[in-house]
Design goal:
The protein is α/β, with parallel strands linked by helices. The protein has 13 helices and 15 strands. The chain is about 35% helix and about 20% strand. The strands form four sheets. Strands 5-4-1-6-7-8 form a six-stranded parallel sheet, with helices on both faces.
């Protein structure tokens, strides 16, 4: 693979956080069409591009023009809630600093794009919107702008974006910030999967503007800390993250050089939840080698603890987790847990 000189961006779920808005407007449209609403998980499992094919499957017989009219009625209001994703502006500035050429290739309706980009501007060299099937447009985009495929990457959040990159003979980067799940993205076999654009920037900087080739690195195992955190009611805090395939787990993170494990635990939990902790107790250490649940190939040494949070137990998540719940330990076992968290929880319950 050659060094990246050209970047083609998807819009929805890649640069802007519009999943909730699109989901709500889709449910509004389904209701108008006499269909049942979808849960967010159902929507993510069912939604696909080109979106006209999605509606043909979900609402057969209803004209697309009518569906779009209903959708727009809702979305013109819903899109006011859309904000740029964390790290999006910084990554775009990074592209400008490195003098990379930047393009937009999106299915977004021009009216919606004008409204959103007025609030959330990105200075693309050229914008291609209302592209129903990006796979049929990508080679035209490359030719019109004289882009060498080997120097070009398409960044998107859906399997369709990965397929589009393959159709154009360019590199693909899948981000976990949007519509498709990790399993859905992996089926497309992208060149690289990143949690967010901030991680992509780090990878490019560390690899002389090349994408990693997907081969696991030769670095040593990564030492991390994490804890089952109890509140005064005896419930434990679980968080849901994209990088663990959307499964529930415990907060935690890496130990920094020169940092004691318990110091790292207090720091990581404060950063991720906003909570201070006490009564720290070591439980076990786990090897986590190449877990399929994690979004990339890694070897972790997981130092697992229990602790209690200080009052008031007001959780303030950073951008590493997407949801949290305080749950009784027995009920937690019935949740969709990642395997290391399940092992820790069972160990604590059986003590």
């Amino acid at each position: 693979m050659a060094a990246i000189r050209n970047v083609i961006f998807d819009w929805s779920g890649t640069l802007v956080d519009d999943l909730a808005a699109v989901w709500r407007s889709t449910n509004f449209t389904l209701t108008k069409a006499g269909k049942s609403e979808m849960s967010l998980d159902q929507f993510r499992a069912e939604f696909s591009l080109p979106f006209n094919e999605f509606y043909s499957r979900i609402t057969p017989g209803v004209p697309l023009a009518q569906l779009e009219e209903w959708y727009k009625e809702s979305f013109v209001v819903e899109q006011e809630s859309i904000e740029p994703l964390p790290h999006a502006r910084e990554f775009f500035d990074f592209c400008a600093t490195r003098k990379l050429r930047t393009f937009l290739l999106s299915t977004i309706h021009p009216d919606h794009y004008r409204a959103q980009s007025a609030r959330i501007p990105f200075a693309f060299e050229r914008e291609y919107v209302r592209v129903m099937d990006k796979r049929t447009k990508i080679r035209e985009l490359l030719t019109e702008n004289e882009l060498a495929p080997e120097d070009t990457v398409f960044i998107g959040d859906m399997r369709h974006d990965i397929d589009t990159a393959r159709a154009g003979g360019i590199q693909s980067c899948a981000v976990l910030t949007g519509f498709n799940t990790l399993d859905q993205l992996r089926e497309g076999e992208p060149d690289v999967v990143v949690e967010h654009l901030g991680e992509l920037r780090q990878l490019l900087e560390a690899n002389a503007m090349n994408l990693p080739n997907g081969t696991p690195s030769a670095r040593r195992p990564i030492a991390t800390v994490g804890a089952l955190m109890f509140n005064d009611a005896g419930r434990v805090l679980l968080v849901r993250t994209r990088k663990w395939s959307g499964k529930w787990g415990i907060p935690g993170g890496k130990i920094e050089r020169g940092e004691k494990a318990e110091t790292a635990l207090a720091r990581e939990l404060k950063e991720e939840t906003g909570l201070d902790i006490g009564e720290i107790k070591f439980v076990l250490v786990q090897d986590c080698i190449g877990s399929e649940e994690f979004y990339r190939e890694e070897h972790f040494l997981l130092l697992n603890y229990t602790c209690r949070c200080a009052n008031p137990a007001e959780v303030k998540l950073n951008d590493e987790a997407q949801a949290f719940e305080w749950v009784e330990t027995g009920a937690a076992l019935a949740m969709d847990l990642n395997q290391p968290t399940r092992i820790l929880l069972e160990t604590v319950i059986n003590e």
